[in-house]
Specification:
InterPro entries: ClpP/crotonase-like_dom_sf, Enoyl-CoA_hyd/isom_CS, Enoyl-CoA_hydra/iso, Enoyl-CoA_hydra_C. This is short-chain-enoyl-CoA hydratase. Belongs to the enoyl-CoA hydratase/isomerase family. One of its GO terms (molecular function) is 3-hydroxyacyl-CoA dehydratase activity. The chain has two domains: 194 residues, 2-enoyl-CoA Hydratase, Chain A, domain 1; 48 residues, Orthogonal Bundle (Lyase 2-enoyl-coa Hydratase, Chain  A, domain 2). It is 49% helix and 16% strand. The chain is built from eleven helices and ten strands. Helix 5 packs across helix 6 and helix 9 packs antiparallel against helix 10. The model has no long low-confidence stretch (mean pLDDT 97). The chain binds hexanoyl-coenzyme A. Hexanoyl-coenzyme A binds next to helix 2, helix 3 and strand 6.
Length: 257
């Protein structure tokens, strides 16, 4: 891998996009490498995934503008699909994902962060969808996920004006869960990942799936999605152990599945 590093710390995987010369911009190769790393994550032993960018200036400064500059219509569509497929894989990844946004999250950078379950950012983070200023629309899910996260009005304002917002504004509109000093960001993400990893893995995964799938359907179908997720946890070792521990006034010493 040239542009991605992947490490694990206990149950937590850390994927770092590392292309500092272009502020970690996403070209086809970077997208391909992210895809490969996701496929290779050991899901038996990994319970949360952190995604971040190398350095303290940029998370991801967008899709690679140099690569996109000469594309034809068909190639543009194919490039959008390539990113969308990878980001959808990330969004539906079986375990929770946390974007640790350590600087610029523009265009494809904002979009990849929105494909994660949770966004934490550094005080110097900048979010935006500058695409219309380049003569294109957002193309890695920005027209869809931003509206779902912050509401259509704010999403339309951000996309039409191509104005960037700073960390405090991203927090105010609910685009990020929390803001930290740059030096504390990764530790904060690791702490949150460790908290997630302490809980019953089957239940955490089923919760993620239920939230994601429920958001795509109406409420009558959504509660059925939840019923299935809820039911699927029963008879698991963790469900038995978790409830038995409560009833015996003890704590589970490490969930297994
Ligand atoms: C390619 C990029 C890049 C990008 C930065 N670089 N962003 N290369 N694609 N998205 C490169 C620069 O060309 C430069 O290379 C080096 O990184 C450092 O960037 P500078 O501009 O010199 O840094 P700075 O002045 O600090 O400005 C930082 C910045 C600016 C504000 C983030 O780089 C910027 O505006 N970048 C583009 C942001 C953007 O428009 N993103 C959306 C892209 S469209 P050299 O070789 O000159 O040193 C998109 C569409 C997604 O994401 C959907 C696709 C289907």
């Amino acid at each position: 891998m040239e542009f991605i590093t992947y490490e694990t710390e206990g149950f937590v995987g850390i994927l770092t996009i590392n292309r500092p010369k272009a502020l970690n911009a996403l070209n086809s190769q970077v997208l391909g490498e992210i895809d490969e790393v996701l496929d290779a994550v050991d899901l038996e032993n990994t319970r949360a995934l952190i995604l971040t960018g190398a350095g303290d200036k940029s998370f991801v400064a967008g899709a690679d503008i140099a690569e996109m500059s000469t594309l034809t219509k068909a190639e543009g569509e194919a490039f959008g699909k390539k990113g969308n497929d990878v980001f959808r894989k990330l969004e539906t990844f079986p375990i929770p994902t946390i974007a640790a946004v350590n600087g610029f999250a523009l265009g494809g950078g904002c979009e990849i962060s929105m494909s994660c379950d949770i966004r934490l950012c550094a005080e110097n983070a900048v979010f935006g969808q500058p695409e219309v200023g380049l003569g294109i629309t957002p193309g890695f899910g920005g027209t869809q996920r931003l509206a779902r996260l912050v509401g259509a009005g704010k999403a339309k304002e951000m996309i039409y004006t191509a104005f960037n917002i700073k960390a405090d504004e991203a927090y105010r509109i609910g685009l990020v869960n929390a803001v930290y000093p740059q030096a504390e960001l990764l530790d904060a993400a690791k702490k949150m990942a460790a908290k997630i990893a302490k809980n019953a893995p089957i239940a955490v995964r089923a919760s993620k799936k239920a939230i994601n799938e429920g958001l795509d359907v109406d409420m009558d179908q959504a509660i059925v999605v939840e019923e299935k997720a809820f039911g699927s946890c029963f008879e698991s070792e963790d469900q038995r152990a978790g409830m038995e521990a409560f009833l015996n006034k003890t704590k589970v010493d490490g969930f297994k599945n």
